[in-house]
C-alpha cells in the first residue's frame, strides 16, 4: 500500500480548470478515471486525511502510485474524454456494468431496392429504419411473424432472393402469403417500398387509422357478400392486434423516451432501462454492477447514460430520458446527450402522471433484478464456502462459522421495542429457527441495553437446554428473564409460547425435518449484531456474564459496512468484493427485515385495539356500528343509555352493559386492552399518518 503523500502533486501544479484525471498503480496501470469541473478542488479531496475518506476511496488512493490529468475546455469535453478512457483502460475502481452485450433491433432496410425486414445488432447504418432495442431476438421474430400476414415485406437474405429470381419460383413464405414475392415480379419495386413504409408506420405507433381502414374494408366486403375477403381482413385485424399486445401502449401516442431506474445497496446496484417508442415499450435491458467506487445514485445514472449512448448513433437517443436522480452537475450530461441526438434532449425526473407510474414499474424491475442476482449468488455452493472461509480468516476464527445467528433491535421512536434473531447454516437462511423477542426489562429506547437483554435471554436458554438430561420437559412459563415471546418462520416454523416450542405429542419433542430438536440447544459459532462497537460490547458482556467464551461476536455497521470486534478500537474492513462481506450483509439485512416486520405487526395490533374489546357479549358487528355511529370511544363514553340504544342492533341491555363498562374506566387514564395488557389511545382510532411513521422506524 502506497502513502498518498508520496505522489501528491503540489497545489500550485494542479490547474483550476475542467479536466479528466487518471490514477495509476506502481506498475503504471490505470486504476481509476474521473472528471472534474475544477481539477484542483477535486484532486485535493483525495489527498486529505485517510480516516476521513470513504473506505473504497481510501483503498484506491493507497493502491495508486501516481496521478496525472488532462485539461479540457468544457465539462462536456471532460465527460466525453472520461468515457473514452474508461472504455480504453477498463479501470478496476470505476463502475463497470457486467452486461455489455449488443441488444437486437428490428431493422427495415429502406436504402435497398426491395426493403428487407430483419434482426440487426451492432452499429447503426444509414438508410435503415430501426425499432427497439428488444430484450431477445425471438421477441422480434414473433412480432414480425404476426405482421407479415398484413404487411408481406421481404425477409429473406440476398442469396435466397437472388436464387428465387433465377429459378422464377418464390420461397415458402411467398407461397403461404407472408411475402409479396418481389423476387418473381408479383409486386413492383415501388409498391413493395410503399408496403415497407406502411410496416414502419405501424411499428412507429401510427396504428389507429390503419386498423380503422381495415375494419371499414371488412364491413364493405361483408355488405357486398365477399365473405372470404371479409374473413381475411378479420384475421388480418386480429393478427395486428396480437402484435400490438406484445408492445403494450403505456404513454401518449408518439412518445419517445428511455426510462432508467436504479436499485442499489452498499455493495451492488442494478440498472433497468425501458425503451418507449411511439408510446409503446419496445425493449427492456438491464445491468448489474459492483459499486467499486463511492458513487451516488446520480453517479450511477451518469455511468448508465454513458454505457447506453456512448457507442450508439445519435438517433438512438430519444427526446426524453427519465431518471430517478440527476447527475451532478446535470448540464454537461444534458448537453452531451443533445449533441449525440442532434437536437434538444430532456433529462429529468418524472413527477406525476403516467410517466411517474411507468418509472415505478421500471424501479420494481430493477429491485427484482438485484434480488434475483443476489439469490443466484447466494445459492452457489462454492461461493458460500468461500464466504465462510473469508469470514473465519478476517475474524480470526479457528473454524468456519457453519451456524451464524444475527440479532437486530427495532422500534418506532422508543415504542414497541422488539428484537429478532435469524439463523444461517452453511450460508443459507434457516427460517424454521428464527426467533423474535419483546424487550421487557425496561421501557424506552436503548439499543445497547436491549441488545444485552436479548443476547442474555437467548444464551440463558442455551445453557438451560444444555443442562437437561436429553428428555423433553416443559419449562414453566414466567421465566424471570421474560424469555422469547412468539416465533414464526416462513417455512416450517413452529408456534412458541414464552420461547418454548410446544411438545410434539407423537415424538415427545418437536423436531425439524432432519430430526433435530427445535430448541436453543445448538449454539452458533458466530453471533452478528446490527450495529457498531457499543452493540458488540453489550453482546460480549452478556456472554461473559453467562460464562460463555466459545462463541465469537462481531457487529456490522450499516453506514460503511465495517465489521467491529469486541475490545478493538478499529474495525475490520473486508474488501468490497469479498464474498464474506456479502454474506454478513445478507444476514444483517434479513435480521432487520424480520425485526421490522414483527414491530409493524405488533404496533398494528395495538393501534387497532379498543376499550370495547373488553365488553362481554359485544361482537365485531355491533362494535363497529357503535364506533361508526359515535365516531370515537370518547364520544361513546359521554353518550347516555338511550342514545346508545339508537344504534341499529343494540338493545337496552347491551347499551347498559356498554355504558357501565366505559364508565368504569377513568376518562383521564389511558385505556387498556384486557386481552393483551397493552395501552391504547382513548379514541381507539389509529393515527392518520401511520404510513408516514414507517420512515422513522429503526
TrEMBL record:
Residue ranges constituting the UvrC family homology region profile domain according to the UniProt record: 259-543
Region (Disordered): 466-523, 674-698
A GO molecular-function annotation: excinuclease ABC activity
Subcellular location, principal: cytoplasm
GO process terms (BP): nucleotide-excision repair; SOS response
Domain UVR: 208-243
CDD domains: GIY-YIG_UvrC_Cho (cd10434)
GO annotation, cellular component aspect: cytoplasm; excinuclease repair complex
InterPro entries associated with the record: GIY-YIG_endonuc, GIY-YIG_endonuc_sf, GIY-YIG_UvrC_Cho, Hlx-hairpin-Hlx_DNA-bd_motif, RuvA_2-like, UVR_dom, UVR_dom_sf, UvrABC_protein_C
Segments forming domain GIY-YIG: 16-95
Keywords, alphabetical: Cytoplasm, DNA damage, DNA excision, DNA repair, Excision nuclease, SOS response
Composition bias type Low complexity, residue spans: 482-496
Stored Pfam families: GIY-YIG, HHH_5, UVR, UvrC_RNaseH, UvrC_RNaseH_dom
Subcellular location, record wording: Cytoplasm
UniProt similarity note: Belongs to the UvrC family.
Subunit structure: Interacts with UvrB in an incision complex.
HAMAP family for the chain: UvrC
Function: The UvrABC repair system catalyzes the recognition and processing of DNA lesions. UvrC both incises the 5' and 3' sides of the lesion. The N-terminal half is responsible for the 3' incision and the C-terminal half is responsible for the 5' incision.
Protein name from the UniProt record: UvrABC system protein C
Source species: Streptomyces angustmyceticus
Biological classification of the source: Bacteria, Bacillati, Actinomycetota, Actinomycetes, Kitasatosporales
